[in-house]
Design brief:
Layout: H1 20-24, H2 31-39, E1 48-53, E2 56-61, E3 67-71, E4 74-79, E5 85-91, E6 95-102, E7 108-115, H3 118-122, E8 131-133, E9 146-150, E10 154-159, E11 166-170, E12 175-181, E13 187-193, E14 198-204, E15 210-212, E16 222-228, E17 234-241, E18 244-251, E19 258-259, E20 266-271, E21 277-284, E22 289-296, E23 302-305, E24 314-319
């Protein structure tokens, strides 16, 4: 068994002084205390986006120009928080390989090969991307990057160097795609697909139980592309209905979902590290060309277009300060 499942336990203490008299007597922070506060702030590297276009995977540094990382039939890249590692699927024809590439050296580790994922596994609507779990900035933790991915039937986890590859869940009687771990690593969001529905599910690595978070029928729509928020509170997903695709947000514990975008051509959302923005693939009609955009995680407002790829740009992953 893989025994490196990780749970980050963060304990916060808040002291509230009630009454005007107590507020007036509040002790001012000295230089040493101010330094401690500054140290806890999230320090992020410059922004980096990776995405698929023109049959390969590209990267784009903030205020930079696009650079080809790897060519060929590559799908669904995911960059880690330190912007050093890139995970992605490689289409080998009858089989699909999960690879991890060092962005500095170009050295690539093949995690393994699986039977072809078929149309669903390659489908933008499901965005069957791998997902990294890593410690928050300045958390004081030292554990290694851990990668999660689904092969269409099972969910796997593996360390960045390709060791300790372990099956952690099998979705019996249905297919599963598009994993996204909670920030503490105790739960995993994924998309479960049957002949009757396509819904958002979560699986607990502690209780070893799974449960649906949404309950759509195909008449209502189909869920896809889950993304767990950095604070652990929400899961963003795409709802496909007729020809439209929009982002929705739902509490991770379940409940009422809220629509974020409304223009009908938004897909493949991933959170920025601060939880304020989402990177998405969004399409313009006549002709339909998908590009990578940043949108507000709160209200879906479009903030910035990152790509102008002639062939379209798909399945973004971002890290750093945007």
């Amino acid at each position: 068994m893989f025994r490196s499942r990780l749970v980050l336990i963060v304990t916060a203490f808040a002291f509230i002084a009630a009454g005007a008299g107590l507020q007036g007597c509040a002790k001012k922070k000295g230089p040493a205390e101010k330094a401690k506060v500054e140290k806890k702030r999230m320090v992020l590297p410059p922004g980096l986006a990776v995405y698929t276009t023109g049959g390969g995977i590209w990267k784009l540094a903030k205020a930079g120009t696009p650079e080809l990382v790897v060519s060929g039939r590559m799908w669904f890249p995911a960059v880690n928080a330190s912007e050093t590692l890139l995970a992605y699927w490689e289409d080998l024809g009858g089989r699909m390989a999960m690879n991890v590439r060092n962005l500095a050296t170009g050295a690539t580790t093949k995690v393994g090969e699986w039977q072809t994922l078929g149309a669903l596994g390659r489908n933008l609507n499901l965005r069957n991307a791998p997902a990294w779990l890593q410690p928050p900035e300045n958390s004081g933790t030292t554990f290694k990057d851990v990668l999660f991915f689904a092969d269409g039937r099972q969910i796997w986890q593996v360390e960045a160097d390709g060791t300790n590859l372990t099956t952690i869940y099998e979705h019996e009687g249905a297919a599963c795609y598009g994993v996204s771990p909670s920030p503490d690593g105790t739960r995993i969001a994924f998309i479960g697909v049957t002949e009757k529905d396509q819904n958002l599910w979560t699986y607990s690595t502690q209780t070893h139980k799974s449960q649906p978070v949404t309950e759509y029928t195909f008449r209502d729509g189909a869920a896809g592309s889950p993304a767990w928020s950095p604070n652990g509170v929400f899961i963003v997903f795409v709802l496909y209905k007729s020809e439209d695709s929009n982002l929705w947000r739902i509490p991770a514990e379940g409940g009422t979902s809220m629509q974020i975008t409304k223009e009908g051509r938004t897909n493949s959302a991933v959170w920025d590290p601060t939880g304020a923005k989402l990177a998405v693939s969004s399409g313009n009609q006549n002709p339909l060309v998908w590009q990578i955009h940043l949108v507000s995680a709160e209200d879906g407002r479009f903030l910035e277009q990152l790509t102008v790829a002639p062939a379209g740009a798909f399945s973004p992953s971002i890290a750093g300060a945007w």
